[in-house]
Design a protein that fits this description.
This protein is of the alpha+beta class. It has helices at about 20-30, 50-60, 85-90, 100-105, 125-130, 165-175, 190-200, 230-245, 260-270, 305-310, 330-340, 370-380, 390-395, 400-405, and strands at about 5, 15, 40, 65, 70-75, 105-110, 135-140, 145, 155, 180-185, 205, 210-215, 225, 250, 270-275, 280-285, 290-295, 320, 340-345, 350-355, 360-365, 385-390, 410-414. The strands form six sheets. A four-stranded mixed β-sheet has the order 21-22-1-23. A four-stranded mixed β-sheet has the order 2-14-16-15, covered by helices on one side. The longest helix has 13 residues, at about 50-60. It binds uridine-diphosphate-N-acetylglucosamine.
Length: about 425
């Protein structure tokens, strides 16, 4: 098993180009199933989750070729509509295949994605949305069978703005006979990116990025070419790393507007920020504690809660971090405590008393984002750290070790 060895207390300096977004690429790869032919997707990151989605598409009958960061997906021979249980278990995002398979073949069979490291992850909102547009869903013996003689369009009102359920609903509704209105839709920029490629494929969707999305169903979609948007979470992680190591870094290939909730908090913590059209430069100042509550976009993203918690462990004073999206998302706390952090967790709230510095330790990445929090802590800590279970981190950060090295970090993978 691979691990990172990190010698801390090096200030990160320089420029880093942010990769294409994992959370945009996954639904976009699924969306290519809505038509027959070769779609071309640019800026696809090399990540374990992307590889897992690629394996599923191939199993369904797609042919995939990668040329650097460009992925060509040929869906001409896709005929299977059943996703094997072991692949569902490997990656929850395989639930994204429900909407496209139902849209194109009017039929899909998958098993429950089940719980995952960050807490139970139900798919009731996905199912409810598909039922609203005409699917008949049968849930028995751990399997979900969805069928639709005809997808009719309909009114979907989400109780909670689920990102995945919004995307699934958009994809299935794109090939429905009528019009679908999705209310209380998630507003994440990745949803607007999905709308962009779907419309290039011939769909008629508008409103993505707001809380109401209108989908006028069309009879047929065609392949398209698209460049995936940048990864907001990777960008936020690097910005946080810059502040935590008291460095001076520039993240490139970003849309600063999409990062406001993060840059705002980093400024509150004491960072100095200069924003350009497609870059953000960040410099550390005196760090002070802040309060953060995770929320759906445009609120503070749950995926950056762990890196930010890591940062405030060395900010002066007390910080309070409340996690409202997932139940079990404080797994980094025990590991950070080993490194000298002072944190108390009460239910969904963590209370952090800032310390002067962290010290290196042997820790293990409990999940993807908790893992990146440990990388940041190790980069700032005095002495050497070992981070085990690096494979979690590589689910969602492309070459994090090499990118950190380019900024001056002393990190190697063994
Ligand atoms: C997506 C992101 C993930 C991010 C999350 C929240 C992808 C591939 N993943 O995940 O990185 O952390 O958004 O920003 O884009 N819920 C239900 N029923 C459902 C669906 C969701 O109760 O049917 C609940 C979940 O348990 C969770 C909350 O809604 O508490 C948010 O989930 P959701 O927005 O669906 O996240 P994902 O799409 O899974």
């Amino acid at each position: 098993m691979e691990k990172f060895i990190v010698k801390g207390e090096v200030q990160l300096c320089g420029n880093v180009r942010i990769s294409g977004a994992k959370n945009a690429t996954l639904p976009i790869m699924a969306a290519t199933l809505l038509c027959s032919g070769i779609s071309v997707i640019h800026d696809v990151p090399y990540l374990r989750d992307i590889q897992a989605m690629q394996d599923i598409l191939i199993l369904l009958g797609a042919k995939i070729r990668r040329q650097g960061h460009t992925m060509l997906i040929d869906t001409s021979n896709v005929s299977k509509v059943e996703i094997p249980e072991h692949l569902m278990r490997e990656m929850r995002a395989s639930v994204f295949l429900m909407g496209p398979l139902l849209g194109r073949f009017r039929k899909v069979r998958l098993s429950y994605p089940g719980g995952c490291a960050i807490g139970p992850r139900p798919i009731n909102l996905h199912i409810k949305a598909l039922e609203k547009i005409g699917a008949i869903v049968d849930e028995s013996f751990g399997f979900i069978d969805a069928e639709a003689k005809e997808l009719t369009g309909g009114e979907i009102n989400f109780d909670f703005p689920s990102v995945g359920a919004t995307e699934n609903a958009m994809m299935a509704a794109a090939l429905a006979k009528g019009t679908t209105i999705i209310r209380n839709a998630a507003r994440e920029p990745e949803i607007a990116d999905l709308q962009a490629i779907l419309n290039k494929m011939g769909a008629r969707i508008n409103g993505a990025g707001t809380d109401t999305i209108r989908v006028d169903g069309v009879a047929r979609l065609v392949p398209a070419e698209h460049t995936v948007m940048f990864d907001r979470i990777e960008a936020g992680t690097f910005l946080t790393a810059g502040v935590m190591t008291r460095g001076d870094i520039v993240v490139e290939n970003v849309v600063p507007e999409y990062l406001f909730s993060i840059t705002d908090k980093l400024q509150d913590i004491g960072a100095k920020i200069i924003t350009g059209k497609d870059y953000i430069r960040i410099k550390a100042g005196e760090l002070r504690g802040v309060d953060i509550k995770t929320l759906p976009y445009p609120g503070f993203p749950t995926d950056l809660q762990a890196p930010m918690l890591s940062l405030v462990t060395i900010a002066k004073g007390t910080s309070i971090i409340t996690e409202t999206i997932f139940e079990n998302r404080f797994k980094h706390v025990d590991e950070l405590t080993r490194m000298g952090a002072k944190i108390k967790v009460e239910g969904r709230t963590a209370i952090i008393r800032g310390v002067e510095k962290l010290t290196g330790a042997i820790v293990a990445a409990p999940d993807l984002r908790a893992g990146s929090a440990l990388v940041l802590a190790a980069l700032a800590a005095e002495g050497t750290s070992e981070i085990e279970q690096v494979y979690h981190i590589e689910r969602g950060y492309e070459n994090i070790d090499k990118k950190m090295q380019a900024l001056g970090a002393n990190i190697v993978k063994l």
